[in-house]
Amino acid sequence: MHAPPDVGCVGCKRAYHYTQAQQTTVLLSCRLGGTLLIRRMEPAGGESPARAASGAPTRGSENDALLGWGSGGNASNTMIPSTVGRGRGKGSSKLKGGSGDRGGTTAYTEGPLGSGARSRMASYDSATTLGLPRRVSSRVRLESWEFPGWGSHFTMNPPPGLALSNPSKDNGGHEKLGEWYATAISGNDILSSVLYVTGLVTGFAGWLSPVCLLMVAGILYLYRFIYGEAISALPMNGGAYNVLINTTSKPVASFAACLAVISYIATGVVSAATAVSYLQTLIPAAGLMTCTIGLLFFFACLMTMGISESAGVALGMFVVHVFTLTAVCVLSACYAFYNVTILKENLQQDFPAVTVGGTVVEGTWVTAILFGVSSAMLGVSGFESSSQFVEEQAKGVFVKTLRNMQWGVAVFNPAICLLSLCVLPMEEIIEYKHSMLAIMAKRVGYWAGGCLGLPTPGLDLGEIFAFWVSLDAFVVLSGAVLTAYVGISGLLARMAKDRCLPQFMLRKNKWRGTYHYTIFGFFLLATSQVIILQGDITTLSGVYTFSFLGVMTLFSVGTILLKFKRPSLPREVTVSYATTLVGITCVITAFVGNMLSKPEVVSWFLIYFMAVGFVVVLVFLRVRLLKILLKFAHPVCCDGVTSSIKDQLHELQDEPFVFFCKQPDTYVINKAILYVRDNEHTNRLIVVHCSNDVEGATIKTLSKHIEMFDTMYPKIKISLLTVTGSFSPGTIDWLSQELGVLKNKFFITCLDSVFKYKIQELGGVRVITH
């Protein structure tokens, strides 16, 4: 008998093609409308047409074999769906036959789970008419749109030699960032802090300010290894978000991401506004708000040109800034050697009084250390930025960038703070804290000019040196704006890939391959803050401090969880629990110190956090909100409204997720299913097992387990995909193309040190269980 033609549904636009050895009645249901489509075919082997049309079992077959999990009979059917999924746009998931992208042939078959001898005729069963009552208790009540259908057992044969390929070795034509390029991008941010942190710390700690900055350098030394272990184990963009999403749940990771977003917004606006403030010392007519917005727009355009070009600009800024700081230190040291009077007078000063919770408290060495260290933590902001673009860095570069930044802070911040006490009176340091370095340069430059006998009317070396320092401050603070763009681009792209943000943010510029929506979205958000707050740097600096300290705390928590829950994951750096706990304690203490000394900033921090968090939570809970809306709209709205809501639900939930399972371990499989159910917007899960023995006992056992789990979780369609071959980066890349699923939707168990490949070679897969 000839095979029947394609059977399609006008509601969901699906088409199925059937080939079969026996004639029977084909039952097909549409997931959208719940419509039952019946195709009647001629009976075989003497079966009467009436019996076939009635849906009664034909000879050698059972209805269960057609509609659910069947094991009896001798019918041998193969179903090849021309489209699996909704087929809407690029996000549709496809199982394709024919020639693969690598020149091989993809062989694809589908059969029922739990049985290798019989295939199912219906891929999607109606919850109310077909498969659901046969598999679960009659007490279970599901709407048709809630039931995605029962899973299947697929087999795919990849092209020969696929397991030997490693797509991660190909950088797509883009050269990875080296040590100094990556250091420059992050270093411009962290070393720009010396331009304002000295005066700020001196206002709280007095002559103990160099000690406070040394203590902060010690804390940063601890975090150098904390960050190093976390990112070397999970070298993917996202920083604290990346660490937490691979060790905890998506809501916890999204909480950390909100803090990071606030941190980058604040650092971009603060750096741009401060840079313009230094520019005003050179060009008094420069408008603060106009020039700040213009500077933000300039770096937005620069970022669209690509990170490599931006890194080259950042390296030039970094070299000039280090040279400038070195020149200031050398001239100030010479000045201090011949003029010790100012230092002696500063050492005689009492500790500054501090405001604690609105009450003025007399300064002591305790208040000097506590609030001095708390305020000095702003001077190490930017230390986490390197973790936001680690995927663009060459192998082994990230750990080196942490080392370089830590030593830069440990050398320049305390040294310049100490030398400022030797050059300027303490009152002058506090009064001109936002431009202290320029005042200091003018003083030592004038002294150096006098020593050299330069004619003051014609050549004032102090004015020239102050001009140089102010220009350098403008340039390096502009580099900190670049750092904010680089960091936010990596973070938001990672969040969008994980479906925490709208998917349009992943669209790339065809000209340079950059995330232009993310870049200019950040520009618009930063510009709105400049306009709303009228460039209030003080308030934004406080918000920046709270968000940055929150990110550091969550990074430490993520490292502890990584050590406890993912101990077998290979890493380049290891740190003890004691070191991590000491780091957390120091950062929390600094957080409390800032809350006590700046209580008015807490409200602004909460406002920004709630605003950013609302957007993330809204995207994260959109499926639940649509389901609630559908429940209320169904009795009162027309069918068009409810159908539109169902369309949105199917579009969001029809994206499959993939879990690679090595052994038929029910405990691990159940943990993976629970993770997907609780963290992802999907009702489809494909469990993939790679093996050369597709008919072995492991496959049969795994098929029965997946059948059981598919019955236990009727709201998730759980299928088993057997791939002929071994697990490798090439297999992941091929499956991603064949299934139409992004690699970040591929989940694995925790790797160990003996595994052949590193996690960064797997293309961004997520670790969800041990």
UniProtKB/TrEMBL annotation:
Topology of this chain in the membrane: Multi-pass membrane protein
Region Disordered, residue ranges: 43-120
Gene3D superfamilies in the record: Amino acid/polyamine transporter I
Domain of life per record: Eukaryota
Coiled coil: none
Keywords: Membrane, Transmembrane, Transmembrane helix
PANTHER family: AMINO ACID PERMEASE_ SLC12A DOMAIN-CONTAINING PROTEIN (PTHR43243:SF11), INNER MEMBRANE TRANSPORTER YGJI-RELATED (PTHR43243)
Subcellular location, record wording: Membrane
Lineage: Eukaryota, Sar, Stramenopiles, Ochrophyta, PX clade
Pfam family, one: AA_permease_2
CC per GO annotation: membrane
Transmembrane segment boundaries: 194-223, 252-276, 282-302, 314-338, 405-424, 444-468, 474-493, 514-532, 544-562, 574-596, 602-621
Primary localization: membrane
Molecular function terms, GO-annotated: amino acid transmembrane transporter activity
Designated name of the protein: Transmembrane protein
